[in-house]
Amino acid sequence: MMSLIPKLLLDVGNSRLKWALYCDQNLGTTGTVLHNGNLTEALHSVLAELPPPNEVFAGNVMGGDSDDLISRFSFEQWNITTQIIKTQACAFGVENGYIIPERLGVDRWLALIAAHHLYKSTLLIVDAGSATTFDALTAAGKHLGGLILPGLELMQESLLSKTSIPRVEFTVTETLFASDTAEAVSGAAIQSTVALIERLHSTLKESTGCIPHLILTGGNASVVGAQLTEQKEVFYEPDLVMKGLIRFADHRGLE
Question: Which position among 24, 65, 107, 239 bears the catalytic label?
């Protein structure tokens, strides 16, 4: 009989801490908090009130001493050793396409593993968050590599910080030919991201001879997804990294 004590899954991004309770093959309670670099405060603010988990699994892109910080928190809080997931050359039928495998961000690695498990087809995976990442994966699980672009807000922020263009708020817009600065800057960030998605999707289709599924995840997935013009199969997977963590939580030591 499976234990009803949940496992705790942590997706530690550059700006957000996402967490989920996983029990009996189901994702349960989930949550997100901005950490703004203060991971200790974020962990205590949302996790200290949780019931003690059975195990803790974490994917962490922050680097530095943040792995130790996460491990120390769970040990002091629940006397549990955290399983910090690291990028590998191969796991769960996915072959890492990076020359130096560990240089692929663990969030992208977990997304690849989850997407391959879910779809078993040629995929273009786009994570539209603080950065926007693009990864190509064959039906056989071979990662062909990918690209990294500043996220929509970061693209706008970098332009405004290096020019004399007036500061404007990011605006979700469908405008192609804007008549004001806010829409001109925000619209260009959105449309350049959409254009790259469509270019990569078309190139992947030509190189593999099949129509790739497009997997969208991240906070801005719906923003860029709404602007796609070519006919393609689009799947929204907001919990893709968590689903990658589930693979490790279910098969620890067997990958």
Answer: 107
